[in-house]
Amino acid sequence: MLADRIGRQKVVIAGYLALMLVYLLLFGPLGGWPLLVAVLALYGLFYASTDGVLIALAGPVLPSGVRTTGIALIQTGQALSYLVSSILFGLAWTTWGPTGAIRIAAAIAAVAVLVVALLLRGIPADAEQPA
């Protein structure tokens, strides 16, 4: 609903910012229950802001004849990306420890925010409107 009100692009970017905050909080001064609550809330916000909204962004820019296939490929790519990133995070954790792995993940999330913002600039404003 928020994406329909303020725009899908803003919501997706906010979702990636929430993910970056998750990683920043993990090596910040918070601990215990406050950290757990903040991280779970921000991670949930990340998923809510990106998972379905990504498909809503993609639908209007995909040709109608291959829209379903395109959406399926996007979902597959997203799932495979989650798998690969989980494996790489585990390797980073094993190699550089939790602090190193979390800092690398935070840096990658920051780069992702910039890349997503740049990529979304190319989507015309009318593609954001529901079909």
DSSP E strands, number: 0
| N/C terminus separation | 15 Å
Q: What helical percentage do the residues reach?
A: over 70%
- Roughly how many Å is the radius of gyration? 16 Å
Descriptive report:
This protein has 131 residues and is mainly α. The protein is built from 4 helices and no strands. It has helices at residues 2-6, 8-26, 32-61, 67-121. The radius of gyration is 16 Å and the shape is globular. The model has no long low-confidence stretch (mean pLDDT 86).
Based on the model shown, name its key terms.
131 residues, mainly alpha, 4 helices, globular
Short description:
This protein is mainly α. 83% of the residues lie in helices and 0% in strands.
Topology readout:
Layout: H1 2-6, H2 8-26, H3 32-61, H4 67-121
